[in-house]
Amino acid sequence: MKNNDVYSRLLKCMQRQGKVHNGFDMETAEILSTEPISISYNNVTISSGIVMGSCFQSAMDLETVISTEEHISEGLKNGLKAMLNTVKLQKGDQVIVQRVGNMFYIVGKAG
Question: Distance from CA of residue 61 to its chain's centroid?
Answer without folding.
Answer: 19
